[in-house]
């Protein structure tokens, strides 16, 4: 009935950092997995990172590993994607999603709830 809500995107220069926030509300709240994906025009949705609802077992795409960090605020149903050393190729609409379970967390079809996304634009 409800969707994740993202915020924190913006226009930054290469090398800058952003922290995206995702507040999750829906039938999967309290269990399962929260993930971040990104979408650019003409391309398929790309997995970025995922984390268990309670903050364990962060999992990253190769493109995110080493620069991005996924975490959660334990007091709130809020999940973060800290993005450091941003590059122009990181430019995308970043979407937060939630699902039950914790298998194949990189598969987009496994997620039940999707946010509208927050735009990240990185200039060179």
Kindly state the percentage of residues in helix.
under 10%
Q: How far apart lie the N and C ends?
A: 40 Å
- Structural class of the secondary elements? mainly beta
C-alpha Rg (nearest Å): 13 Å
What's the helix-strand series?
EEEEEEEEEEE
Low-confidence stretches: none
Please indicate the percent range of residues in DSSP E strands (runs of 2 or more).
Answer: over 45%
The dominant shape is globular
Count the E strands.
Answer: 11
Mean pLDDT: 92
Main β-sheet, in a few words?
7 strands, mixed
Number of helices: 0
Structure description:
- The strands form 2 sheets. Strands 2, 4, 5, 6, 9, 10 and 11 form a 7-stranded mixed sheet that branches. Strands 1-3-8-7 form a 4-stranded antiparallel sheet, with no helix packed on it.
- Helix content is 0%, strand content 46%.
- It contains no helices and 11 strands.
- 34% of the residues are buried.
- It is mainly β and 124 residues long.
- It is globular, with a radius of gyration of 13 Å.
